[in-house]
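Protocol step 4 of 5: obtain the predicted structure for the target chain.
Materials: sequence only (see below). No template structures provided, no constraints applied. The aim of this step is simply to have a reference model before the mutagenesis design in step 5. Sequence pasted as it appears in the construct record:
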Amino acid sequence: MAVEWKTVHARLVEQGLLPMAGVKEALLNHHDPLGVVAAAAGAGVRGMLNTARLNELVAAYEARTSAAARPAAPSPVSRLLDQKPKDLARTIAPLAAPEPIDLPLRNNRPDWSSNDFPDLATDVDVDITVHFDITGNSVTEGKMSDINACFNDRLDSIRKLIVRNSRLPRKPTDIARLNAEHARYRGRDNIAVAIGLVNEPRYTKNGHLMWGLEDETGEFTCLLTKKEGEERDRAHEEIIQTGLMPDDVVGVSGTFAQNGDLFYVDDLHFPLHDRHEKKHAETGVSVAFLSDIHVGSKTFLEAQWHKMVDWFHNDPLARTIKYLILSGDCVDGVGIYPGQDRELAIPDLFNHYTEFARLLDLLPEWVECVMLPGNHDAVRPAEPQPTFEKDIQSDYHATTFVGNPCDFSLHGVRLLSYHGKSIDDFVAGLRTVTYADPVEAMRQMLRRRHLAPQWGGKTPLSPEPEDGLVIREVPDIFVTGHVHGHECVDFKGTTLVCSSTWQDQTSYQRMLGFQPRPCMLTVVNLGTHATKSIPFA
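Step 4 output (structure tokens):
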């Protein structure tokens, strides 16, 4: 069975290796990628793993592996690396079919322990506490004063998080004062510290990372250099490999050049804790996650939906599910993209919502739905988005309607649900984020404590006086959708859920070579934080 990249990447990290461009495809196409990575210890290869170093690992692997143990005529890695795709544009999704799921099964479903999912949903009452929802609280008029207020609130809020959570070498200073006194901060013995907004991040021809840093008082130009040899710093290499987003809020510490026109960054400081301690509910009921159902489209997988409904009524694990979180794009909408009318099974927008309400009514009565909008829904496109109008809500039962994003708690366990439109900006702006691995975008959102930092990108933003996209409290569970993938992993103590779609591959996705992962129901227990993913495709 093929080895997943996340497994290979974890082994690379254990060996102290950071893969560069082209290495991932070559390793996954090798007949024994884990064996190649294991050869690093004996070959003494560490640090940045480029094409040349990968060839060293392959040579070391083949030297210690007998010819009899190898598959016939394996393709040399050097030949794989020389094979160029027909489309030299950036690869945004895998072209191959999804890998088979290898799970221990019970009655043709993933096995689970009653100790991990101990309580029945019928034994507890609904307990939802909303901490933030823009619905009814949007006051912006879209004026320049609103934009300034929004960015000032973002800078002030995240600055406090950086000061509290990062290991700053000293108290931050206003940028205007640092510019005026730059002569004091030229040596290693007197480090300057500032916190501000990132402007125009870019790479130099030598691979260094450069950007402007701005606060309320002024701006200077920062340079994070790419080190070579013994001066290499793994944290710096990871930042340079990933990049920065426009309008990020970061802290920098370092020194000025002799003429004061450049600030050399020694360390970059983000606002996330090293580790988050999850809260555990006193009850052992569960929450399930879906997104991007796209009812009304010809590619909506209705047969698989009824298969899931049958599972809800008959499987013991389903009886522990008290809540179903629907993270946007529950319907396909109308007029979202050119030519959409040709791909609609239901032409009327309101009939989309009526049909989805009927489908939700098929679920057992013990399930409480929490529904928020996405970019296909009949709400304003600018985020944060308020919830649906009352005439849409009227068809639904046992459903709590919230805005996008929504910060709320279930039995004391904190959840952040966001549709995920800004993943498009993270894919465009950061080197390590792809549509094939959208969870990396979620990690970057948490590192920055902001869901959509870039103004003027692919994500329309509403400039509220209080920036509603700042992650003010680290969630126990963070869920997105939008990209039609599926994943459930832990990141620094937070469970990250990329919710699965209920839509088959669209013509646009087929043109891009994008393979969705549909019909996966993710279940998380609120008491034990055990997780299970149930396939219905």
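Step 4 remarks: The chain has a mean pLDDT of 88. The CA atoms of residues 205 and 226 lie 11 Å apart.
Proceed to step 5.
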